[in-house]
Design a protein that fits this description.
By secondary structure, this protein is α+β, with helices and mostly antiparallel strands. The chain has one domain (54-201): 3-Layer(aba) Sandwich (Protein Transport Mog1p, Chain A), CATH 3.40.1000. Helix content is 24%, strand content 35%. It contains four helices and eight strands. The chain has helices at 4-14, 41-47, 104-122, 190-201, and strands at 51-52, 55-62, 72-77, 84-90, 127-139, 142-154, 157-168, 171-180. The protein has an eight-stranded antiparallel β-sheet with strand order 1-2-3-4-8-7-6-5, sandwiched between helices. This is Lipoprotein. Keywords: Signal. Residues 1-22 form the signal peptide.
């Protein structure tokens, strides 16, 4: 629990902490599927569970209302607030994001997601972060999630951020998980990533 205030600040730095959904927010005329046959954003948001792998869902932010293509983001807290995470579902205006992780669209979006996380950290003088490695996280029976591990510092605190991207029902699914590197009870973000991917894809 002693990490909670630090994680709140770190979440704000990475843009992980969204605003609470207000009454009446969400995708207008929410139905289960859009004209293109894929689920609506509201339906996609409803797919994401209240709890998964020890993480608890918190706030929801409808970016689509202010800028088309940016979709919806949901914040999660790790066990005992040992980590913070944000799950984003969006399409950048593309009618149907391909389901292949090696497609040009997904590779470009993954590169942009990693660059955005590094650049966001760079806006704070007390934070330094850099990419360390990349890996594909297997999701049983589905397309994998491509992930990059970022390591750095926030003040004197060592931190790690996992940036993952993959397809989900014709949209991009982006997952960011940030936690202090040194913890008494380390939390692996991988079960959370896999659980979210399975839920988002239905």
């Amino acid at each position: 629990m002693r990490h909670a205030p630090f994680l709140v600040l770190l979440a704000l730095t990475f843009g992980l902490a969204g605003c609470a959904q207000q009454e009446g927010e969400g995708e207008a005329g929410a139905t289960t599927s859009s004209p293109g046959g894929r689920p609506t954003l509201a339906a996609m948001a409803d797919r994401l569970p209240g709890t998964v792998a020890g993480f608890t869902r918190r706030d929801t932010t409808w970016h689509e209302q202010t800028r088309a293509g940016l979709g919806v983001a949901m914040d999660y807290d790790g066990p005992a607030r040992s980590a913070v995470a944000t799950v984003s579902v969006y399409d950048r205006g593309q009618p149907d994001v391909p389901n292949e992780i090696d497609s040009a669209a997904l590779q470009a979006e993954f590169t942009a997601a990693v660059s955005e996380a590094v650049a966001m950290a760079g806006t704070r003088t007390s934070q330094r972060i850099a990419e360390r490695d990349r890996t594909d996280v297997e999701v049983p029976g589905q397309a994998p999630m491509r992930c990059a591990t970022l390591h750095g510092t926030y003040g004197r605190q060592e931190v790690q951020t996992l940036v993952c991207l993959g397809p989900a029902a014709g949209r991009y699914l982006k997952i960011l998980v940030t936690a202090p590197t040194r913890q008494v009870r380390p939390v692996s973000p991988m079960p959370f990533v896999v659980g979210i991917a399975q839920a988002a894809r239905g």
